[in-house]
Amino acid sequence: MLKIEKLNVYYGVIHALKDVSLEVEEGQIVSLIGSNGAGKTTLLRTISGLIKASSGSVLYLGKEILTEKPQSLPMKGLVQVPEGRKIFSGLTVYENLQMGAYLRKDKANISKDINKIYERFPILGSRKNQDAATLSGGEQQMLAISRALMAKPKLLLLDEPSMGLAPILVKEIFSIIKEINAQGTTILLVEQNAFQALKIADKAYVLETGTIVLSGTGAELLSSPEVQKVYLGG
After folding, report:
1. Is 148:103 a contact under the CB 8 Å cutoff?
2. Whose CA is closest to 230, among 216, 213, 218, 217?
3. Domain 2-86+151-231: assigned CATH number
């Protein structure tokens, strides 16, 4: 579904991504772990067209998308939930969900899909007329994911969905990610919580200073002494 080959990205003289290659097959959860500054967010933003690559290839559904405009990608089913949630403050929960469906052509089904979101996340339903900025961190993350789901993604890019959340909410967010995947959405997950990210991953990669240094199944990386030492506290 997504194939990245020898991707290079620069910020001025800084070489942020160095010959990065990875693959996401349809139906999988693929996790990308790494420390702060490793280039994880840069990779997602490059896939989404928000950062320009200097060389390499990003194939989505067999077609090169590095030359695509960012706004065209959600219409093709590639949707990103950004780091830090980026909820539209000043808009209600309901209006945020409507924004997620902005590019959809099947307008008649939007209300039905919003009601499905409220069934899945009753807290959002009970606060649908509330300014989204007044929600708690966990509620905002649920809204950010729900807003992305309103775009009907085939491939969902998740950037640090557990950031800043209490441990009990982290478990809930990862449970939601598994549920979304089980219902047919392929997921590329960028996450600092290495244990949770690897636990749910079909395939996983480790990114260090812009370079993929390890790859394997989630289970293989969980049992890797190197990963345990650096990312799982020994």
Report:
1. no
2. 213
3. 3.40.50.300
Contacts of 222 (CB under 8 A, 6+ apart): 195, 198, 199, 228, 232
Q: How far apart are CA 101 and CA 150, in angstroms?
A: 5
Q: Where are the domains of the chain?
A: 2-86+151-231
Tokens for 132, please give them. Answer: 């989204």
As given in the structure block, the two tokens for residue 79 are: 């949707």
Compute the C-alpha angle 85/90/91, nearest 5°. Answer: 75
Report the C-alpha gap between 168 and 196 in whole angstroms. 12
Identify the bridge partners of residue 223 per DSSP, sorted by sequence position.
none
Q: What is the pTM of this model?
A: 0.93
Q: Give CA–CA dist 188/176, Å, rounded.
A: 14
Pick from 123, 64, 58: nearest CA to 93: 123
Considering the chain, what is the average pLDDT of its residues? 94
Percent of the chain with pLDDT over 90: 85
Neighbours of 13 (CB within 10 A): 5
- What burial letters (b/e) apply to 34-56, b meaning 16+ CB within 10 Å? beeebbbbbbbbbbbbebebeeb
Q: Are 13 and 28 in contact (CB under 8 A)?
A: no
